[in-house]
Amino acid sequence: MTSDYGDCSGNYTRYYFNATKNRCLRFNYSGCGGNGNNFEDIAKCRYLCGGNYNPDRDPCLHLPSNIWCPTWPVYAEMWYFDSKTEKCIPFLYHQCALDRNVFPTCEDCKKACQRHMHQLQMCPEEHSNSTLG
What we know:
By secondary structure, this protein is α+β, with helices and mostly antiparallel strands. The chain contains two helices and four strands. The chain folds into two domains: 1-53, Factor Xa Inhibitor, CATH 4.10.410.10; 56-125, Pancreatic trypsin inhibitor Kunitz domain (Factor Xa Inhibitor). Strands 1-2 form a two-stranded antiparallel sheet. The longest helix has 8 residues, at 42-49.
């Protein structure tokens, strides 16, 4: 994936992974839109895309566990990354089923999994009420 300036009129320094040169490079970002090859700092770009990247340890590539826990019937709205749709999806999380692909907000999910998004997702504004119905 190449760098993508985006759709707005801002001008922000960001970093993208250039697969041909096998390194992270700087580019200008408009502030909205674009794709997932867009990192706020070079360290995060190197961490997520550099030579140490291991897809087996990438939390975004694993579905959240579906473990029933009868001793802890507390649910919370959380987010997970769906690699098929390339989007962060809200779901009701059972607190005893700890998993790597579970994020407290859409923004947290997006930041962790943006390298897998061909189009950056627009997250809903945070609300105290559930958006799951």
